[in-house]
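Per reviewer request, we include the raw input and output of the structure prediction for the construct analysed in the revised manuscript.
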Amino acid sequence: MDPQTPSAATVGRCPMHDEAFAADPQQVYDRLRAHAPAGPVELAPGTDATLVVGHELALRVLQNTELFARDARRWKALNEGQIGMDNPVLPMMAYRPNCLFTDGAVHLRLRKAVVDSLSRLSTARIRRDVEPIADYLIDQFSERGRADLLGDYAKLLPLLLFNRLFGCPADIGDTITTALSAIFDGKDALRANEELTGALMELIARKRRQPGDDVTSWLIQHPAGLTDEELKDQLALLMGAGIEPERSLIGSALVLLLSGAGGRQSGMRIEEALDDVLWNQTPIANYAAHYPVQDVDLGGHVAEANTPVVISFAGANSDPALAEARRTHSRGAHLAWGAGPHACPAKDPAQVIATTAIERLLNALPDLALAVPEKDLQWRPGPFHRALVSLPATFSPTPATRMAAALQERATAPGAQQQPLQSSPSAPARQESARRKGFWSNFLDIFRV
């Protein structure tokens, strides 16, 4: 739509890539909503889109697959060369042949393979895999009495867990962990993406030769018969979509649990904190780009055919029409997990992971507290996520013994093979090992999986 048409001129195109948006995205949602349930935004300099902030309209877009396509190859500005290959939002919006960017029969086939494979992950399996990783990470900083709960814990736990769930050998797991971290941090993303692609293709080749009890093998064995290219793109989607939102879900819930407003002093349960985050600090705040197959009036704002219509899950959740549902944290009303045929297929595993990770941390460090006032915490710029920069915390220094206890428990479990136990190494030894190997290799060495 031309920026000078009435609806765009009335509202003004709201930027979503600056520090002001990161500090207070709600002011953008409210500004748009004052004129219509959708309005014009700028995702990056020169990258225009329509943002849907009304709950009812968001549901209509998410559920109407005939009028709103997900295939980004329709993107008019990209096809006309107005979006450069170095555009910062392109890695999140460009077409990939996975179940996020496809429609119709292709989408159904790919999604069924993903859903069926994820459904084989039981709650018991997830908790069993999260707990030793959580203990290992806690051991890395427990002796210091201080930590960045994002960089030292919430960011690394999903990375290591997904290596485990997807059956990554040590060398491939190290590459995937490093590459995904670089992509999310925006550090040489092109090279990191190439390394991630190479590692995933090697993982697929190994699992075809020697399948295991893991998601990669289940996807390979699925009757949908995914090609290696299709497998690579589904794995990249699952790992990428699972790691960054999980980090933010854990981090934002910890803020609530450690703050004076909600915290453990008030008896807030972990599940309540997670619900509050999903309602009010939605980790994936704005995403799910759709491309209208024709010009469409979105409650007073016209979106042109083949231009991005982005769903603001955060904006929809803050719609005044949902005031009562938001007050009672009604789980069926918020859109943090999306809706319609592209709704997140991993919401139950994601909540189990977050709950287990937070339980393990709070039990290990019972006097854990924020190191700075909550109001001084900073949020990362970007149009798509709601994510903290860091989460500094303090606690009483604790000997790094939890991993040794976990090893002992596993070794003495019924049916366990008796192996000589390795105590948790000293801090200097851990640091030297980390320099020689990646986090995943180091974890595997200690846990002896």
